[in-house]
Amino acid sequence: MRAEPGDFAESVLLPGDPRRAEYIAENFFEDAKLVTAERGMLGFTGTYRGNPVSVQTTGMGCPSTAIVVEELIGLGAKNLLRVGTCGGYHPEMQLGDLVIATAATAQDGTVSSITQGVPYAPAAHFDLVHAAYHAAEEAGRKPFLGPIVSADLFYDPEEDPQALWHSLGVLAVEMEASVIFTLAAMRGARAGCLLTVSDAIGSNKVERIQDSVLKGAVDEMVTLALGTLEALH
Ligand code: HPA
Questions:
Q1: Measuring from atom 7 of ligand 1, which residue has the nearest CA?
Q2: What CATH number does the domain containing 42 carry?
Q3: In this model, does residue 233 exceed pLDDT 90?
């Protein structure tokens, strides 16, 4: 990332999308400064209600995310909170709903490369799950809380992924959490993941959220995410 120690705060929000990182810095931080733009993976540091905080783009998928997370932890990051979107597998999920991930099945090649094939269960840190759940409760939101799956493919060749994953109790699919949880656990950092349901995946169709609805839901998720990091102080 071509960043230096001191560029990032100990608490970092991790969106996949660089434009979302910029939006969060501009609309939620005080005194936001761009600290990296390497490969377009924008990172910003500022404060939220007086406490230092950063936001760093991960890019799409675990390989790119692994580079970012290794370097952030090397630069002193201690609390990593993904803020992303997901495909919902739970039949009662509505577009725009909030998911708090407790664990992420590693259906990706990166975590198995790291563990060298050893079976492993990437899990969110309890402190972040706990703080996020209480922040959501205080805001009067009813989150879906439970396991998700991190996949390498957005366009899934599985014939009926919703039936498969719902039968296993998995709430949603996204593409980065498994490696964030794994690297944080290995390096003694804390990691969590908040997701907005942007796609409702049914047996024979996928419904995509409208941009205006997504914006409102992401704003609420980012507010909760910042409240979650604040509660760790
Ligand atoms: N699949 C994987 N990742 C996602 C999806 C999806 O349907 N929606 C948002 N992120």
A1: 87
A2: 3.40.50.1580
A3: no
Q: Count Cβ atoms within 10 A of the Cβ of residue 187 and give its class: 0-12 exposed, 13-18 middle, 19 or more buried.
A: middle
Residues lining ligand 1, Cβ inside 6 A: 85-87, 151, 154, 173-175, 198-199, 201
What pLDDT score does 127 carry? 98
Residue with tokens 């692994």: 66
Quickly count: other Cβ atoms within 10 Å of residue 95's Cβ.
17
What pTM does this model have? 0.98
Task: Tell which atom from ligand 1 comes closest to the C-alpha of 156.
Answer: 1
Host domain of residue 88: 11-231
- CA dist 50 and 143 (Å) reads 27
Measured CA distances, 61 to 32, 64, 84, 100, 150 (Å):
26, 6, 12, 19, 9
